[in-house]
Amino acid sequence: MAFTTEERYRAYADWPADHIETIKQNTKSSPWRTNFHIETPHGLLNDPNGFSHFNGKWTLFYQYFPFGAAHGLKSWVHMESADLVHFEKTGTILYPDTALDSHGAYSGSAMQFDDHLFLFYTGNVRDENWVRHPYQIGALMDTDGHIQKLNKVLIDQPSDTTDHFRDPQIFNYEGNYYAIVGGQNLEKQGIIKLYKAVNNDYLNWEYIDDLAFDNDLTAYMMECPNLVFISGQPVLLYCPQGLDKTVLDYGNIYPNLYKVGQSFNPETATMINPGPLEQLDYGFECYATQAFNDPFGRALAVSWLALPDVDYPTDRYDYQGCLSLVKELTIKDGKLYQYPVPAITSLRAEAQLFTEKTKTDNTYELELTIEANSHLELVLFADADGHGLKLTIDPTNGCIVLDRKDCGEAFALDFGTTRHCQIANQATIANIFIDKSVFEIFINKGEKVFSGRVFPRQDQSGITILSGQATGNYYPLDYGHKTH
Ligand code: FRU
């Protein structure tokens, strides 16, 4: 179903009562529903929001348009988790229901203050001439999940940005609260602005400056910036839309990238000695990654495994998008690593030795080792002829190649069907998570990551080795009862 502007922005209460029931049944009939990844019962999911620790549990929201596979009037849907692997929806929703967020409760972050969770987000407003007014606004959630909006603009659109100004991330640095907001300056260049909470009061923000991080200024907008600290080093994750490919070559419509700096000076809004710009994920889908420092000193991240402005085969089942596994971020030998939290192994059923399989239920993890002077050409989601998602891990030639062209339904063809990265000529470990239509491939425990979607045919559920070898295990994964 193609959505008109009127339908995208129609008030939730104005939809006919049976619409949701109809699309819900359609979504249920999809052959590609995931088993252990967060997706919606119907409608579109995009960015992870408000990832935080609150009331003794993990809190995570997602951006949501309930009425179909389209980007329309967005709300936030709340989930909780005790282990960062199993999530449950609570029923709490942050709705776009005030004059300051009338056209969408857009992305943002969260931080506990006393016994409330402060939600810091962008109110997307369109006036009668359809001119956009972005407001950085807030709400408080109590331990029962009741939300009280602050009904106050906390940060207004600055005079030196366009109406593209959104996605505030609040963070604590050395005892003070700061926020960064993504934007576009009047020269139509992507920038990130840094603010400080005056006297640590989340109602009162003062502007410090544009964040200095050797911004090449070739992007036209920075979406979803996040700053986390790992052993004192700042890690800036962001989505520079339109970044020039001579700065960094990327395959997806919009990239999700990062830089690791040596240190951070909030007084001058400077990331000191920023390292090179790097791909967060070498796969086909990974965007709007949200990261935060938890109260236990870890840096945790979760990504949206879809992209803006791309159609997905699930659209005809009236839903789109899923979230990645929760990944812990660490730095080893100066490099950023991302790997699922330890509790992910709780999904493993009994190990079986890795071999070819004609049929699986496409819900498993492979943990493989490929020796330094060897290679592995593997097909996941394989049919009887060995067609599926082809993964080549080749330490001998120092590369990994992933090709989804023969895996079920084609989509996003404008952006090619292969992705690749370089690896060292060393024994290489791959942890490969397969979930019906999602793959997350972690190389060397998170040194490189390939994430994405495929939409296999019914007969594509095998594992075929085309050439080379690997040793390791196959683990069926069992999430238990899924409520989302
Ligand atoms: C990124 C994004 C954000 C915005 C949100 C709206 O995917 O465009 O910049 O806040 O999605 O849903």
UniProtKB/TrEMBL annotation:
Its EC number is 3.2.1.26. Residues 37-340 form the Glycosyl hydrolase family 32 N-terminal domain. One of its GO terms (cellular component) is cytoplasm. It comes from Streptococcus azizii. One of its GO terms (molecular function) is beta-fructofuranosidase activity. PANTHER family: BETA-FRUCTOSIDASE. This is Sucrose-6-phosphate hydrolase. It catalyses: Hydrolysis of terminal non-reducing beta-D-fructofuranoside residues in beta-D-fructofuranosides. Pathway: Glycan biosynthesis; sucrose metabolism. The lineage of its organism: Bacteria, Bacillati, Bacillota, Bacilli, Lactobacillales.
